């Protein structure tokens, strides 16, 4: 296993030591390995989310090209009109 040296400001070093002293981690190395695993997991989750978003956008574009979907301006106008009607009914 390779080793790395890391320099930390005193408050960060103290925090890491407090996590070890509280029993959450066995050592500084254990703490750093956990942080790296969490970061790797977040990167994988973000990549998955972006791929799903791209697929969803592609699906929406295909639907729009096929004549499906709704015009955004018309949908927003309808929502605003509905909100105004609701507000008017509450005032009377």
Write the layout of secondary structure elements.
Blueprint: H1 10-21, H2 28-65, H3 72-91
Protein name: Type II toxin-antitoxin system ParD family antitoxin
Family: Belongs to the ParD antitoxin family.
Keywords: Toxin-antitoxin system
Give an account of the 3D structure.
The chain has 92 residues and is mainly α. The chain has one domain. The protein contains 3 helices and no strands. It is elongated, with a radius of gyration of 26 Å. It starts with 9 loop residues before the first helix and ends with a helix. The relative contact order is 0.05. The mean pLDDT is 95.
Features:
single chain; 92 residues; mainly alpha; elongated; Ribbon_hlx_hlx; toxin-antitoxin system
Largest sheet: none
Share of β-strand residues: under 5%
Fraction of residues in helix: over 70%
Q: What count of domains describes the coordinates?
A: 1
**Roughly how many Å is the radius of gyration?**
26 Å
E-strand count: 0
Q: N-to-C terminal Cα separation, in Å?
A: 75 Å
Count of separate DSSP helical elements: 3
């Amino acid at each position: 296993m390779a080793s790395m040296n890391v320099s930390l400001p005193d408050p960060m070093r103290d925090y890491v030591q407090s996590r070890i002293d509280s029993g959450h981690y066995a050592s500084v190395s254990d703490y750093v390995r956990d942080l790296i695993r969490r970061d790797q997991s977040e990167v994988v989750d973000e990549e998955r989310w972006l791929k799903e978003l791209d697929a969803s956008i592609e699906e929406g574009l295909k639907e729009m090209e096929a004549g499906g979907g709704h015009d955004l301006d018309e949908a927003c106008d309808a929502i605003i009109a509905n909100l105004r009607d609701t507000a008017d009914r509450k005032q009377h």
